[in-house]
Amino acid sequence: MNTIKIIPISVSSSDKTNPFQRPFSVLSSFSVRSFFSLIELIIVIAIMAVILSMLFPALSLSIQNTKSIQCANNLKQLTYGFIEYSDDYDGFFPSDVHVHNVYEHGGTNWAYWIQPYLENVQVLNCPESPDPAPKNNKIALHLYDGNYGWNFDGTQGKYGRWSTRISQPAQCYLLFDSGDQCITYWSNKWQSLLEELDLDWDSKKEGCNRHRNAVNITFADSHIESRELDAFIAAPTPSQTAPWFIKWSGNSILQRQAIPFPKR
Fold this sequence. Notes:
Layout: H1 24-27, H2 38-88, H3 110-114, H4 138-142, E1 148-150, H5 152-155, H6 162-165, E2 173-177, H7 190-196, E3 214-219, E4 224-228, H8 229-233, E5 237-238, E6 253-254
Antiparallel strand pairs: 1-2, 2-3, 3-4, 5-6
């Protein structure tokens, strides 16, 4: 009778594991790179540069919009200051009547007259302007420049109570982005208007249309608008009509002429 021998077979621990798992020795046979090649690094940098170039215009636009909103808020507070001033002075805005020195002229010192009605002088600063807010003293407020201007000769107190004289307050400019303090200090003509708005020289963002060619404006009824430069100037405009309500030189029409530096 034949004898059958059973020969034991040794099974390693790795063979006893899950059949879907591979021994560590197999995994370790592949080399794992722990660094980028120079070409891969250049590709990553190029992709990041493309992404940043796409995001930067949107970020820049967002910053500009934020500054324009802050500017509009400043103008709103200044407008309230004018209204409160007129309430205390029987319905009159500052004027150039009874002026004995440069610090009494209503047009070039309106920031001084309105300052007691403001929370702080920082609201006199347009965030897009390169010029800072003035210090809170008479001389600094007289020299205030490069931020906001007042429609002085259209609404000043010399012509009477503004609420009586201005028949269309929702169409009358009160305050706006400007180069100089008031419109106008000199004769009421095209050249003077450009000089006050800082459009007659390369004024950069001291010019009135500093918000991507737009000007922020508050009207006599306290509402705010943003207008492109040409719409803001609104020429031709007859004397004493909206939006300026200014008596132009010769009691004639403000005729549109060339603007030497229309771009900011």
